[in-house]
Amino acid sequence: MKTRLVILATSTVLFGLMAGPVLAEDLRFTVWTGSEAHLKMLNEIAESFKQKHPDVNVQFETIPAADYTQKLTFQLAGGNPPDLGWMMEDAAPTFAAANVLMDLGPTLKATEDYDYADYSEAAMGLWTDGETVHGVPFSTSPFMIFYNETLFDEAGIETPLELAEKGEWNMEKFQEVAKTIKEKTGKWGFEFKDGQGYDSRIMHALMPPIRAYGGYAWADGECGFDDPEAVAAVEQLHGMVFKDTSIVPPGEQGDYFSGSSAMTINQISRASKMSEAGFDWGIAPLPSGPAGEAPVIGQAAIVVFERGGKKDLAAEFVAHMTNKENVAKMAQFFPPARKSVLDSAAFTEANSIIPADQMVHVSEAIANGKVLPSHERSPQILAAMAPKVDALWRADADVKQALEGVCAAVEPLL
Hints:
There is one protein chain. Strands 3, 4, 5, 8, 14 and 15 form a 6-stranded mixed sheet that branches. The chain contains 17 helices and 15 strands. By secondary structure, it is α/β, with parallel strands linked by helices. The chain has 2 domains: 4-142 and 297-371, D-Maltodextrin-Binding Protein, domain 2, CATH 3.40.190; 144-294 and 377-413, D-Maltodextrin-Binding Protein, domain 2 (3-Layer(aba) Sandwich). The model is unreliable at 1-25 (pLDDT under 50). 38% of the residues lie in helices and 13% in strands. α16 runs antiparallel to α17. It has helices at residues 36-48, 68-77, 92-97, 105-110, 121-124, 149-155, 160-165, 171-185, 202-212, 228-242, 311-321, 324-330, 339-342, 345-348, 356-368, 378-390, 399-410; strands spanning 4-5, 26-27, 29-31, 61-62, 84-88, 128-129, 132-133, 136-142, 144-148, 218-219, 222-223, 263-266, 281-284, 296-304, 370-371. It is found in: Periplasm.
């Protein structure tokens, strides 16, 4: 019987059930992208694996990002684990501590011409424990400001990129231009990542301004959300939502990609959607703050699950997918952790719709940024945070008191 490695492309996966049948001997690979451009590229990489394993077929199984970790947990607990999968940075310590991830180190280091040392210690920090390698980063992607240049022209103001190149792109200017856009064009000045900053993207909404102010989420068992720096940062956001009315508020849906908001925060993988945009656009660094520039990075890795039926073959596919050639190919959407690729034209010129002079800012953010907070109990922490963060997003909210409530909820878990 032929061995098959399966990565199924579908957006209808619910609680581990797929739209089409998967044979018992198949090896599954879960991802959270439904982008046709992403899947086309990944299928090309999978097809190239046939040069060594002609009998292996590869497909992708898509679980929406907002549900990904929870549904993956259900699959593992229900005895229906995938064999490979993408893993978000906040979930990495949880899954590693549960001993459900295969050690990829022996396979990677035994693979000819793999050059494991090409991954910096910093890039691998979240995914290693001594000599144990829990996963291989395929995306070390900083959050960038996407902006609608057409709306900035209509408002008669400089774009975030122009301001950044003059050294004037900071949190104060960010608030100013967002308010001006709303006043002069009637469009929202800013919306949170994918319009979800009030629910599934809470950390993506809060961490960039908090770090720009010099604050933090948690460290060494202590919560930082109620420290003065974090409070000041969130108070600014709150004022933009309810006083300036420049940020899309709770209960309303903006859509940067259709032109209803002048700015959003996202990663370059989302640039694949911009080919459909009916406006001129660009990307810029996050605004700096009282603490200076503080790039925030989202990192994701490929992992192999211990309980998968073909874990050795799966590990071999991880080595193939993350070799230098394929990392360079993925760099058009996913900023690499390999130093040789990140420092080359293969990265700055990889994305056909983002100019190289803008991609340079992505490289700089990777070099200087810090990954989003993670913790062994991240799922429980985020669940405990959610109802307390909800209290922030009322017009009459006491921001400091609400953030003290966040810390009271999460500190027992830290």
